[in-house]
Design goal:
The chain is an alpha/beta fold. The chain is built from six helices and six strands, in the order E-E-E-H-E-H-H-E-H-H-E-H. A four-stranded mixed beta sheet has the order 3-2-1-4. The chain has a two-stranded parallel ribbon with strand order 5-6.
C-alpha cells in the first residue's frame, strides 16, 4: 500500500487540500469542490494510506503566495500523472507567469497543436493540482473567464490577486481566512 501525506488548511479562497507522494504534490484542490483527489490518486497508485503531514511545506508556501509572493508556487514539485498530452498541457500551464492570462488557443499553440483547443480545455479541466498548475490563468480568446473547477468567483479572485485585470464588477472581495 502506498502512503500519501495530506495537508489541509484555510485560505482566502476556502479550505485547500493537498496530497504528497514521493516528494511531489500529486493532487491539490478546494476541499468543497467537485474534484475528489483521492479517487484520482487511487486510480493512479492503487490503494493508499493517508497520513496527515506537510513534507513539502505546502501550507507555508501558500501563505507566502497569498501574502504576495506569487512566485513561491513555482518551486513546488508536482507529479500529475495523466496522458502524455495532458502532461504537456500542464507543463505549458506552469510557464504562464503570474500576472498573465493566456487563451486556450495560446496554450494549444504552445503544445504544438493549434487545432486542439477543445482538447486543451479538457486537459485544463482535468488538472489534478489546482493553483500550482495554474489552470485558472487560462481564459477564452475573447477575454472572458470560462469554467473553473473551483468556481468562477475563485478564478476571478486568483487572477485579481495575481494582478490580471478583471472587470471590476466581476471581482470578488479579497478575504483573509487565516491570519
Amino acid at each position: 500500500m502506498t502512503t500519501v501525506a495530506r495537508v489541509r488548511f484555510s485560505s482566502p479562497v476556502g479550505v485547500l487540500e493537498g496530497f504528497v507522494h514521493e516528494d511531489a504534490l500529486c493532487a491539490f484542490s478546494f476541499a468543497d469542490g467537485r474534484y475528489d483527489p483521492l479517487a484520482t490518486i487511487t486510480a493512479r497508485l492503487g490503494p493508499v494510506e493517508v497520513v496527515d503531514g506537510d513534507p513539502l511545506h505546502v501550507e507555508s508556501i501558500f501563505r507566502d503566495y497569498f501574502d504576495g509572493g506569487l512566485e513561491r508556487l513555482d518551486g513546488i514539485r508536482v507529479d500529475t500523472g495523466g496522458t502524455p498530452f495532458q502532461r504537456k498541457v500542464w507543463e505549458v500551464l506552469r510557464t504562464i507567469p503570474a500576472g498573465q492570462a493566456w487563451s486556450y488557443l495560446d496554450v494549444a499553440r504552445r503544445v504544438g497543436a493549434p487545432e486542439a483547443v477543445r482538447a486543451v480545455g479538457a486537459a485544463n479541466g482535468a488538472n489534478p493540482v489546482a493553483i500550482v498548475v495554474p489552470c485558472h490563468r487560462v481564459i477564452g480568446s475573447n477575454g472572458r473567464l470560462i469554467g473553473y473547477g473551483g468556481g468562477l468567483d475563485r478564478k476571478r479572485w486568483l487572477l485579481a490577486h495575481e494582478g490580471v485585470p478583471v472587470p471590476a464588477a466581476a471581482a470578488s472581495p479579497q478575504r483573509r481566512l487565516f491570519e
